[in-house]
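Protocol step 4 of 6: record predicted structures for both targets in the notebook before any analysis. Target 1:
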Amino acid sequence: MSKVHGVLAVPELGIVYASATGTNEVVAIDEHSLKITARAPGGVYPDGMAYAPEVHKLYVSDEHGSSETVIDVSSNKRIGTIQLGGDVGNTQYDAVTKHIFVNVQTRRQLIEIDPTTDKIVARIDLPGAEGNHGLLIEPKQRRAFIACEGNDKLLVLDLESKKTIASFDVGKDPDVLAYDAKFGYLYVAGEAGVVSLFKIEGGQASKIGEGLLGPNAHVVAVDPDTHFSYFPLKDVGGKTILRIMKNDSAGSHP
């Protein structure tokens, strides 16, 4: 694999999927043996991924191909391409509607796709968005959190009304988001190394912390059991390191 940008683990399949932009492929990896089991075309620049379990399909953001690649996980074959009409950001699955949502950065829209038909069912305008790339859906509170690289904003979208209800300043070039459901903590990581922390409660977001964590801290993941947050940093004094943090409910904020 070359230049992996997106990683998605699907425990029920025992597979980890990686989007390899170096070869423009989506690679399936057995989670036990860590061996590659399949490869599928991912488009021009495959990035974020989401899995729709009811239809056994993987949806892959083709960032520069202006489309969403659809892969059948039973055969690991590309079975469709959904044209979106602009540069594509991250993709997420909503467990309530059972729909796929994907950012289209150059249109300042969030696109809703029905996986049963692979048709676009809504184009949601995002006032105040510039380069809406990062995306996280919190299904229980019916909120979508959208990180905008172009103007360093976090937008909060009500998924019921499909309206933006809040906007916050975050660190420069925000990208990946992670959510600790037990404590309601939302992490927003940025390319410049600044991590912003929000408390999500009753559908409302409040910013509770922000700080420089390390260079290029634009990827974050949260362990739901330990509540540790993980930040891979590609170059700290010439070395690649993994920085592990606790939040205040279990230790300390980043």
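Target 2:
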Amino acid sequence: MKSITLAVSLLFAITVTAAGVNYTSTPIVIDGVSEDAWNNAIWREMPHLMDGVRPSSDNDFEGRYRLLWDDNYLYLQADIRDDVLIDTHPDPTQKYWDDDALEVFIDSDASGGNHQFNHTAFAYHIGLDNQAADYGPDQKAHLYTEHLTSRWQRQTSAPYNIIWEVAIKLFPNSYQEHGNNTPLVLDAHRVIGFMLAYCDNDGSEVREHFMGSHEIQPVNGDKNRGYIDADVFGKITLLPKK
């Protein structure tokens, strides 16, 4: 029994550290254009259907992403293929999930748990206007755009492809709405809850596809759990500076 327990513990440790994120000594310019520092990051896929129906083709949707970190930011670069870009809701706090949006799930200490109406974790819905919305403790949607810098740009060599870059500040579980909140200083070996998804609408009243980076076990058939439960996030580990 001890050998089985040890094996499971080792497997868990490997699973956590496998999603390592490299440090960058050069801050990333958030402009939707790749730079040399990104060559030190590993691409990861977004193949999992979280809501709606699976895209009919790679042009309809295909996505991958990679991550880097420094003392101040977790950097995200997503390579998204989407043949129709939709942004029909002028108020960025209204039905933002039914427009095309990059959704970044962050749990700064990987503590998990319900975060739907609190800030122990965030589900940043970043719209095509680069504003970021999530629910607050008052059970209403608010903008948290000051938490991040976002920019996306089409690739001229592949017009259905966009490079979307985001620099994200992380906050402790003590974050207070309208408070004087200080972002965390990031350090090596920090384990962070992380998941990435993309809301894809091709012209209907609601999004058709919701694709993500991690497989989610359904609750009563529902896989759209990330905005509620941080336990469904994956985990990343910030690797030491080289």
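Step 5 preliminary note on target 2. The radius of gyration is 18 Å. The helical segments are 2-18.
Proceed to step 6 after PI sign-off.
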